Amino acid sequence: MSVRVRPPAPKKGFVCMCSNVECIFCRIIARTIPATIINETDTLIVIKDIAPSAPIHYLIIPKKHIVDLASFTAEDRETLASDIFACAQTLSQSDPDAKDFRLSVNNGYGAGQCVFHVHFHFLAGFNKK
Ligand code: AMP
Ligand code: ZN
Fold first, then answer.
1. Is 119 noted as a catalytic residue in this protein?
2. What class has domain 38-124?
3. Which residues have a Cβ under 8 Å from the Cβ of 43 and sit 6 or more positions away?
């Protein structure tokens, strides 16, 4: 059985700066650390999750550093929400094994969020051998 180790909960008032060298997803977006990139648009990057919990497990990550879904502004909702849904549809249509998929987000440490740069889990391939 694998055990996921979580980092300590961030201190109250914790703000991760955009392109902060300590933000792993900002570093992936900036190409300063490697990742398997599946797709990229002006606003999003899609990478393979390093510890997949389904046969297909991608992370849809807005390029803009936003700590979590609760921090979305009205403008983020307008621009990014539509891009994220379109991106999930494209991923689903690009692979027959991804026709049925789950799109999920962990918001906050208590809900299981480990990386404090908002991202959406695209999970599929549940019947894949
Ligand atoms: P969450 O628990 O919702 O914050 O999800 C964070 C996800 O990021 C986990 O599923 C991790 O396996 C994944 N992850 C962490 N570091 C990396 C990395 N360097 N490349 C790809 N995925 C990562
Ligand atoms: Zn970031």
1. yes
2. alpha beta
3. 62, 63, 64, 79, 80, 83
